[in-house]
């Protein structure tokens, strides 16, 4: 039997948004990239120029597509949008700060903060639902581009899922790893097996600053 060829997934988190600055939860809503966020996207493009990618995929949400657009213009690639790479749908939280959420819906706030991966916020989805759709999407992309390198632009929650899946971490466990805007991470995927390459690389942002807003 022929050995399965691995795909390398290079996964970028979108740049800082205006709502990030105010601590507003975005979910499936959107906010424009901030001035820093646009500069971060340019820095990502600078870091990736010269690398060969078989394809460029992105979440179809605006902040990811805006980041991907800046990168795509430099790399000369078309963007393939995929809704399965969206951030977790946060329902009633979307557009609020966490302080506003706690004050207005204390019961839902406690449940959300409780860490149950199967808790779905009203009008939203659970962490497990997000996890299942984005991991399935990435596995499909890896199979389609076996033996090649693919670039993916997505969100913090998507990277959280990919990291936990590669490292075998429970979805309900508290996050114990960094997760910065505009970071670059890599995963090697073959035949359902995931390995972490590099994680949350921000060397390209040295002169700009980073933000871990989780």
CATH architecture: 3-Layer(aba) Sandwich
Q: State the CATH superfamily name.
A: Phosphoglycerate mutase-like
At the third CATH level, what is the topology name? Rossmann fold
Strand order of the largest sheet: 3-2-4-1-5-6
Q: If you compute it from the alpha carbons, what radius of gyration comes out, rounded to the nearest whole angstrom?
A: 17 Å
Q: Main beta sheet, described?
A: 6 strands, mixed
How many beta-strand runs?
Answer: 6
Q: Could you give the distance between the termini? A: 44 Å
CATH class: Alpha Beta
Compute the average pLDDT: 94
Low-confidence stretches: none
| Number of individual domains | 1
The helix-and-strand class reads alpha/beta
Listing every helix as H and every strand as E from the N terminus to the C terminus, the arrangement reads: EHHEHEHHHEHEE
The helicity comes to 25-40%
What share of the residues does DSSP label as strand, in percent? 5-15%
Which word captures the global form? globular
